[in-house]
Design a protein that fits this description.
With 97 residues, the chain is an all-alpha fold. It contains three helices and no strands. The chain is flat.
Length: 97
């Protein structure tokens, strides 16, 4: 199995996790910070899908745009997910992260 298929499977897994959490949010809205988990899962899966469908070999500008989009989406999804964890615990997210 090559890397693109593995990353696509991982992205679909994150997307299904986001859908599951969204349905959980609709059923039990009293759970704190579940919106952060949902949006973090969707953004991370979007970044993984960008990486999975990366065209190889490619010119430098396509390589840079796909790489920067992938990194920004993954980092944003992880920060949103961490914000949800801290919000669930009732704390503010530290500035050092």
């Amino acid at each position: 199995m090559n890397l693109a298929i593995f990353i696509a499977i991982l992205a679909i897994n994150k997307l299904l996790l986001g859908i599951l959490m969204y349905s959980l949010q609709l059923q039990m809205p009293q759970i704190r910070a579940i919106k952060c988990y949902v949006s973090g899962s969707f953004v991370t899966s979007a970044g993984l899908l960008v990486f999975a469908f990366f065209p190889y070999p490619s010119p430098l500008w396509i390589d840079f745009s796909f790489s920067s989009t992938f990194n920004v989406l993954i980092l944003t999804g992880d920060i949103i997910f961490l914000n949800g964890i801290f919000s669930y615990l009732g704390k503010r997210m530290p500035k050092s992260i």
